[in-house]
Amino acid sequence: MAGTMNHGRRRLIYVDMAYTTRIVRQRGHEDYWLARHSWGYFGQVWGVHPLADVPDGEVRRRPRILKFARGQLIIEGTSQVFALPRWLLVPNFILSQLLLVRAILRHARRRPVDAIFANDPLYCGLFGLCLARRLGVPLIVFIPAHYDQLYEATGALANPRIFRFRSIEQAAMRRVLTKADMVFVAAESLAQLALKYGASDEAIARLRHGKYIARHHLLDPAERPAPGPAFRRYGIPAGRNYLIYVGRHTEVKHPADALRAMSAVLSADRDTIGIMAGEGELTEALKREAESLGMGGRIFFPGLIDQHSLSLLLPACVTLSPLTGMALIECALAGSPIVAYRRDWQGEFIEDQVNGLLVAYRDWQAMGEKALAIIRDPALRQRLSRAARASAIEFVDPEANRAKEHAAFDAMFDRFRSSGRRRRASRAQGPCRG
Known about the structure:
Shape: globular
CATH superfamily of the largest domain: Glycogen Phosphorylase B
Structural class: alpha/beta
Number of strands: 14
CATH topology of the largest domain: Rossmann fold
Helix content: 40-55%
Number of helices: 17
Distance between the termini: 40 Å
Largest sheet: 8 strands, mixed
């Protein structure tokens, strides 16, 4: 295929608001950003975080450019480029983003880019669409979650600080997905969401996102170092059994459901300890709820756990997953038996009673009962552990995933070139007559 000849020479702009450089370094998750190169398909990557000052909790008046790794630069923007009164926050935000776009376009015209990748179909998507159309390159959009289901379940918006109303969020998705040249989805439910909001069927690439997994999680659980030092590092005492939740402490992830399921198990089994890994706006409320349930000394909140430490802890744990992203694969790679809601992509990755246990959405009582059954049945635990690891290894298989992803990118570039030729031919013919 013609596009194959350019592998490694292409330059990509990757728009992402999930992490900043500080957070990636803190979590020891450099592999997540190195995966942006797609196994060498893109030789040069500019990682753009339009609002990096917000998660970093810093006041910055100008964007900063950092060298992250060979072939990868990071451009971290700011939400407020001028020191203006708070009542001018909206125009300040708009100006900061326009100036960032202008700076990126100026650099991109000196060093041409080949494509734009947006890590969500919302603000990243709009930002990426602006760059793609101004530069005349294709737009790739990743859909990380089923936003309709999340809103129906919680009433929460994905980007509440930017899109204040659900109708605006939906309009943004429709605009971005209608214009996307490729839509990257890891589950059929997300493909259906893309179609609903106007993506063309030929643009949808059903690919796995296992490349984003940190290398620590790929090691066989039996070959990983003992978890004792990692438990001590995060102040978690020794126990016979552990339950773990891994994810952001935000409403859309339902961490309170995991907490209540943990509490039910801990009440029935005195030798079990709960771990609520992660952080977010609900962390303090979750800690208060743990205290009110009488579990203050038995459910621990270690905050963000770095990827190496997490890979050591997980093999000793049973995972509770109300709604989890990549962490679900990390847990499965560790051979951690999983109890999950039958929701979003979890129902596609987990086959009930085979490589995990599924319960009805929001039924935290059933989640607790299933977790307790795993703890009390060593044979069940071992069977689920082996099957979870096997499924996850297949999911992250680099050879199969690389070939499929590269083929999808090649097809996208071919479509984009063909559509460009059609547009030029149409303009050359002029208006139809007769």
